[in-house]
Amino acid sequence: LKPEATMKAELTDVNDTRKTVTIEIPSDLVDAAIDRVARDYSRRVRIPGFRPGKAPARVIKQRFKEQILHEASHDLIPRALDEVLRDKGVEPVSQPEVPHLHVTEGQPLTFSASFDTLPAFDPGDLTSIAITRPSGKIEDEAVDNALQRLRDRAARMETVDGRGVIDGDIVTVDLVRTDKDGASDTHTDVAIEMGASANPPGFDAQLLGAEPGAIKSFTVSFPPDYPSGELAGTDVSYTVTVKGLKRRVLPELDDDFAKDMGEFDSLAALRGRVREDLEHEGKHAVERSVRGDLMKALAARVPFDVPAALVDREMDRRLEEFAQRLMEQNIDPRQAGIDWGAFRESQKDAAREAVASALVLDEIARREALAIGDDEVEQEIGRYAERAGRTPAAVRAALEKEGGISRVRAGLRREKSIDFVMARASITGE
């Protein structure tokens, strides 16, 4: 097809990023496509009374009319769109939307397609970006809190005798739970920590003072705003048999505790390692904060509304990434009790910002001719292979199979754009 000679095409701007192109394919090209599909059918199908491939075109077109016209339209429209858009120098970032069309032999085919594209824009003066780098200083309180968490994890459980339940106890119980409809379920040897936030409202108060062997029956009224939707605003009856009490006992924070934690000869040595680890984590947290603020500043420089198709694509990517993380933890995403629609919607603002900042980085790379060499791509593949415990050749083969090499190159180019911006932005300490 030669659009400048055989087709009429008009491009209309709906807004800064949304375009509509109207194309008229002449009748001779429509008929040629129909004849081409009909010849293919003649070779492939058998018609009673005719030798294979010898049935007249009119018979083929009559018997397989709908199928032939459908295939002809699917042949004509993508080719016409591709050639017209290439001729006009327009590159869609979303799949062009084409309404259902009917092709008629002997008639021109006129259709309109809507799609998103990205205009060139000026990212502005990069030296005007001002970011404050937060302090990475680790206070003594943070070290104390980390040591306390180590104590909590090292706690041992001791059986308690001679008294009733008090706050903080771990109570082993059998319980029968009956809902408002009279349906009951029984649970045995359940360990319940008194004072835990997950306990039903008022549940703990009913067990305080109870000694092993006691049986307590009571009703819990769940408030209308209770997080668990099926329980909110309902009354549930419990019959609880107290079977045993335990208490969490924390080790003393001393040199012996430090030695139990590993190769530390004193509490001072353990405290020093904890501080080093917190400083290491803090350094990365500071860099993430600076990078996040930079992305926000760049996203604000996009002078048009980010195409919804790109935002939807990023939301889908985030949802799939989260589901993948669950599966890596041996959690079935379908059984995780997650409202996936609500989760996806919650990612909309972050997705829009991520897309906008990526557009700015790509525009900077284009304007500054920032390129990624093949050696840089190979180094990145090697780093990924090392993390994944695979060979670089296997990683490259997998990427090539799914068309992922271009994504690696694009990601590296954006990182180079970030370095370019960082070198010019004003980043000051807190």
Please provide a brief summary of the model.
It contains 14 helices and ten strands.
Give structural notes.
The chain is of the alpha+beta class. The N terminus is likely disordered. β1 and β2 form a beta hairpin. It is extended, with a radius of gyration of 34 Å.
Global mean pLDDT: 90
The biggest beta sheet reads: 5 strands, antiparallel
Helix content: 40-55%
Strand residue percentage: 15-25%
Shape: extended
Give the termini distance in whole angstroms: 62 Å
Low-confidence stretches: 1-5
Order of helices and strands: HEEHHHEEHEEEHEEHHHHHHHHE
Structural class: alpha+beta
Give the helix/strand layout.
Elements: H1 3-6, E1 8-13, E2 18-25, H2 27-44, H3 57-63, H4 65-87, E3 109-116, E4 130-133, H5 140-153, E5 156-160, E6 170-178, E7 184-193, H6 203-207, E8 215-221, E9 235-249, H7 255-260, H8 267-299, H9 308-328, H10 340-346, H11 348-367, H12 374-388, H13 392-401, H14 405-422, E10 426-429
Parallel strand pairs: 4-10
Antiparallel strand pairs: 1-2, 2-3, 5-9, 6-7, 6-9, 8-9
Which tags fit this structure?
47% helix, 5-stranded antiparallel sheet, disordered N terminus, 430 residues, alpha+beta
